[in-house]
Specification:
It is a single chain. With 192 residues, the protein is an alpha/beta fold. The protein has a single domain, classed as Fe-S hydro-lyase, tartrate dehydratase beta-type, catalytic domain (fumarase). It is built from eight helices and nine strands.
């Protein structure tokens, strides 16, 4: 098991390979469809220091506001990442992001972006949102909550030993492509 704490360097990321199991610590920044579109089209400067060396988590959390005004995560499961394919490579490059967490993997454009910028795609276990929420120790900040709504806001969270697996690395490796190829070969053999 590899432990990494954000911010993460390009050198640390380039050492990772597909299949590596990682426990993330430090801050993560949540962003989904609206946030990625906003980052690509508007290129807000205020986000650059928040995202540099960080990991973006494709997650629409279930949150509750505490009586003291702080927030707590009830569920923090990954959302399907492929929706961010039109944006992800440019977001990685513009904001110097070192990783993305989601489920289902991403496409060729993102793979090329991971290689170019020195970033990886981490897979989090779908269906484990309440368990993953237990790894969220604190909500450090939230941006664009009123504009985008809770699921789409930029939540900045602090996590401890957040479990992920590298499924796309900065060397062009993709476990998603390997599984697809093997599945297609197996299906062809069964149909023959």
């Amino acid at each position: 098991m590899i432990r990494l704490t954000t911010p993460i360097t390009e050198e640390q990321i380039r050492q990772l390979k597909c299949g590596d199991e990682v426990l993330l610590n430090g801050r993560l920044v949540l962003s989904r469809d609206i946030g990625h579109k906003y980052m690509k089209e508007q290129k807000p400067e205020w986000l650059k220091p928040i995202l540099e060396g960080m990991v973006i988590y494709h997650c629409g959390p279930v949150v509750k506001k505490n009586p003291d005004g702080t927030w707590s995560f009830v569920a923090a499961g990954p959302t399907t990442s492929i929706r961010e394919e039109p944006y992800q490579a440019e977001v990685l490059d513009t904001y110097k992001v070192r990783g993305v967490i989601g489920k289902g993997g991403m496409g060729k454009k993102t793979s090329e972006g991971l290689q170019k910028t020195g970033a990886v795609y981490f897979h989090a276990t779908g269906g484990a949102g309440s368990l993953l929420a237990q790894r969220v120790k604190r909500v450090a900040d939230v941006h664009m909550l009123e504009e985008f709504g809770s699921p789409e806001a930029f939540w900045v969270i602090e996590v401890e030993d957040f479990p992920v697996v590298v499924t796309m690395d900065s060397h062009g490796g993709s476990l998603h492509e390997i599984v697809l190829k093997k599945s297609q070969e197996r299906a062809a053999a069964l149909m023959a």
